[in-house]
């Protein structure tokens, strides 16, 4: 069974982690290829301006399959070298692909997001949580470490000290605490989650698509580049943006006090 189901609503694509009976556990061995292909389709499709990611049922994702860990099968089978290579081909392919998504990604966290599930939620550019959501990275509780890059991502999302507390204690936090810590933008009533996520996605999708993708690139690159490097990238991308029809439309729309009608040209 595949991991993701898709629904397209205009310029917005909804991805649902769809293993409800297993609390959307991941990864199965084919998940790296599936997520990479899904992200490549989005990156190649200029009609898509925003992706919303959520989970089926009562969980966002419970993370790794504990029975597979116990039985030493699938991802966890064989030698240390074999397990390392599977992490690179499966787990890392998932997180690299999501990190490399060129359009904004909104995580609509509908329930527990644990381990890899928590770190996948953290890859969202904008993160909105149901009041039923919870978050945790209980790797140490299982005698393992974050094998998915979470030790790089989590401190950037919530700061070193809070990331250390979450990782070293192996405890989970509720949605309100996640909002206080900056792990999510805000918390909404469970029944309002998708309406809120889609309302934000509509605002994102209303922006000029070429400039939108460039803006996301600059934000991501800004995590690790120097100020001078960022200025150089900004100048180059700005020059391209100034030559688009959407730039002319945006200026005209503001001057005429009307919404812009952006075509991606």
Summarize this, please?
With 265 residues, this protein is α/β, with parallel strands linked by helices. It has two domains: 4-204, 2-enoyl-CoA Hydratase, Chain A, domain 1, CATH 3.90.226; 208-256, Orthogonal Bundle (Lyase 2-enoyl-coa Hydratase, Chain  A, domain 2).
Would you give an account of this structure?
The chain has 265 residues and is of the alpha/beta class. It has 2 domains: 4-204, 2-enoyl-CoA Hydratase, Chain A, domain 1 (Alpha-Beta Complex); 208-256, Lyase 2-enoyl-coa Hydratase, Chain  A, domain 2. The chain has helices at residues 31-43, 66-71, 80-99, 116-122, 150-158, 160-169, 175-181, 193-205, 209-221, 227-242, 245-255; strands spanning 4-9, 12-17, 50-55, 105-109, 112-114, 126-130, 134-136, 172-174, 186-188. The strands form 2 sheets. A 6-stranded mixed sheet has the order 1-2-3-4-6-9, sandwiched between helices. Strand 2, helix 1 and strand 3 form a beta-alpha-beta unit. Helix 5 crosses helix 6. It is globular, with a radius of gyration of 19 Å. The termini are far apart. Belongs to the enoyl-CoA hydratase/isomerase family. It comes from Brevundimonas vesicularis. Its EC number is 4.2.1.17.
Furnish the topology, listing elements before pairings.
Layout: E1 4-9, E2 12-17, H1 31-43, E3 50-55, H2 66-71, H3 80-99, E4 105-109, E5 112-114, H4 116-122, E6 126-130, E7 134-136, H5 150-158, H6 160-169, E8 172-174, H7 175-181, E9 186-188, H8 193-205, H9 209-221, H10 227-242, H11 245-255
Helix pairs in contact: 1-3, 5-6, 9-10
Protein name: Enoyl-CoA hydratase
Pfam families: ECH_1 (PF00378)
InterPro entries: ClpP/crotonase-like_dom_sf (IPR029045), Enoyl-CoA_hydra/iso (IPR001753), Enoyl-CoA_hydra_C (IPR014748)
């Amino acid at each position: 069974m595949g991991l993701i189901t898709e629904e397209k609503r205009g310029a917005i694509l909804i991805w649902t982690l769809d293993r409800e009976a297993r609390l959307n556990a991941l990864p199965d061995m084919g998940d790296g290829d599936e997520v990479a292909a899904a992200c490549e389709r989005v990156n190649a499709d200029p009609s898509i301006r925003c992706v919303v990611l959520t989970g089926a049922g009562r969980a966002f994702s419970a993370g790794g399959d504990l029975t597979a860990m116990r039985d030493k099968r699938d991802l966890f089978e064989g030698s240390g070298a074999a397990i390392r290579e599977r992490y690179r081909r499966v787990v890392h392919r998932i997180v690299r692909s999501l990190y490399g998504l060129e359009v904004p990604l909104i995580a609509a966290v509908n329930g527990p997001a644990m381990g890899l599930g928590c770190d996948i939620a953290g890859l969202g550019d904008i993160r909105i949580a149901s009041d039923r959501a919870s978050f945790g990275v209980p790797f140490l509780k299982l005698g393992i470490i974050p094998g998915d890059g979470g030790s790089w991502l989590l401190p950037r999302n919530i700061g070193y000290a809070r990331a250390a507390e979450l990782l070293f204690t192996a405890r989970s936090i509720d949605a309100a605490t996640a909002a206080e810590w900056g792990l999510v933008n805000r918390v909404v009533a469970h029944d309002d989650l998708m309406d809120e996520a889609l309302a934000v996605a509509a605002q994102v999708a209303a922006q000029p698509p070429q400039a939108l993708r460039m803006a996301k690139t600059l934000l991501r690159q800004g995590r690790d580049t120097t100020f001078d490097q960022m200025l150089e990238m900004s100048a180059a991308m700005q020059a391209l943006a100034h030559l688009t029809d959407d730039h002319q439309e945006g200026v005209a729309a503001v001057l005429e006090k009307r919404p812009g009608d952006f075509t991606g040209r």
